[in-house]
User: Fold this.
Amino acid sequence: MKKYLFVNPAVIVAMIVYLVVLAVIPTIIVYFSEVINPWIKITFVVSWYFFLISYFYFTGINKVVVVSDKSVEYRSFKKSIKLNWEEIVEVGLVYYSPYPRGRPTRFICFSKVANNTQIRITKFSNECIYMRNRRGLIPYLHTYWKKEIGDVKGGCK
Assistant:
């Protein structure tokens, strides 16, 4: 059994940089402001840090895909989807872009409905589990899924 974050580790690094920038700029502004009461400054900064850390946790770290010998499971704060390997009809790539003209991102899709991969989607379906491809994932999936995995032959593209 292996647990994978829903997003790539590179996205987590980018989110940390973004979090630091969003934390430092308001802190500097509040620190050099002479008009604001010190207790209000402290309350604002603590509240702002709490908001940023909560947002970072719920949008990045909280979403996990667990691949085991029995099933593939997506877990987050709001929902949980579990597909047994017997239920899964196909495993392949989907191209996700929330906007029709946006640049798509490739996700691996575990689908219990046929012909649900190799397409462009604008919304995630509840019939499938999605996760970003990463190094070593495809060979690991081949230990449980003996059929072809979309147009991916074994590498991380």
